[in-house]
Amino acid sequence: MDFKDYYAALGLPKTATDKEIKQAYRKMARKHHPDVNPGDKSAESRFKDINEAYEVLGDPEKRKKYDELGSNWRAYEQAGGPGPQYRPPAQSGGFRTMTEDEMREMFGDSDPFSDFFHTFFGGAAGPAGADDAFSSTGRRARGSRARAARQGRDVEQEIELGLEDALNGATRRLAISYNGQAHTVDVRIPAGVGDGSRVRISGEGEQGAGGGKSGDLYLRIRLAPHPRFERKGKDLYTRVPVPVMTAVLGGEADVLTLGGKSLRLKIPPTTQNAQVFRLKGHGMPTANRPDETGDLYATVDVQLPRELTAEQRAHFEALARLDKDSSQR
Fold first, then answer.
1. Helices 136-146, 100-107: inter-axial angle, 10-degree rounding
2. Strand partners, 278
3. Which letter does DSSP use for residue 150 in this model?
4. Are 268 and 276 in contact (CB under 8 A)?
């Protein structure tokens, strides 16, 4: 069994503060997380080493025992490893190594920590309580401490939505993967979410350990481009075709909303091309505030005729003459 340098695992000196240890753990855990490195066995092994290092260095009591162990490691090694023949000197603070049977009973074969961790931190009850600590009750109690409850990590996943789904809200069935395992979850996305926003799904992240609660799932929203509408904050923008005669003489035009409703827009006489009209309350809702709704802005596209009959041409020519005469007066 090899000595585990937990400080090196986190890239820290032995003088590191509690804050520096926590920061280093978070940074390295994100870098080597299995979700970030799918199928990479070396990253998975590194991730386990980082977790184990923080399990010890992040706990003041375990860290103290680990630091005391350093100067006694050679004596331990020369004594032949685990077994009753070795006892640390009094100044070490005391620990008792465990037999293989005790290790298996306490941790099981699937425990993620190394033999080094099990030996020195699974049963560090101290000499005074050695007999009681290794009774069947003591083994179960210390096993529970070794498997201290730890909350699962949060998981983030990107999801693409259509603009209609953002308008009305949507339910999606997602395949979530972490630690090499996948499961499906049905999530409800509220109406009004914007591009780049995050939606939190409580308890659907990584499962906790030792009875700890699961982390949360965060969905990063990406809105797909829409062929007819553009979103700016709570407002929507669209274009409405208006025949040239309606633009000149006035009338009405149909405006279709994102929700599929047809509105009648009043077009005043001599409406100009690219003129913008506001339709209040027909934009996007605000997430978690359904009473706050944006507006729809309709930009006029004046439609010129592609072909003219002889009669239409004659009328346009007459109109052109009238326009010329009026400009000369």
1. 60
2. 297
3. B
4. no
Q: Is it true that domain 6-146 has CATH number 3.30.565.10?
A: no
CATH superfamily, domain 155-223, is Urease metallochaperone UreE, N-terminal domain (2.60.260.20)
Answer whether 0.70 is exceeded by the pTM: no
Q: Residue 293: what pLDDT?
A: 95
Residue owning tokens 């990590």: 153
Domain with CATH 2.60.260.20 in the chain: 155-223, 230-327
pLDDT score at 249: 96
Q: Residue range 222-245: average pLDDT?
A: 97
- Extract long-range pairs of 283-287: CB within 8 Å, 24+ residues apart: 283/234, 283/235, 283/236, 284/166, 284/167, 284/192, 284/231, 284/233, 284/234, 284/235, 284/236, 284/258, 285/167, 285/191, 285/192, 285/234, 286/192, 286/234, 287/190, 287/191, 287/192, 287/193, 287/194, 287/197
pLDDT in tens, 131-170: 333 334 444 444 444 456 888 888 888 999 999 999 999 9
Q: Report, at the CATH architecture level, how domain 230-327 is classified.
A: Sandwich (2.60)
pLDDT in tens, 61-86: 888 888 877 656 555 555 555 444 33
List every span in the chain annotated with CATH 1.10.287.110: 6-146
Considering 44-53, 81-90, 270-279, 280-289, the range whose residues carry the highest mean pLDDT is 270-279
E strands within the chain?
A: 155-161, 170-178, 181-189, 198-201, 217-223, 230-232, 235-243, 251-256, 262-267, 276-279, 285-286, 289-293, 296-303
Q: Distance between CA 198 and CA 260 in Å, rounded?
A: 27
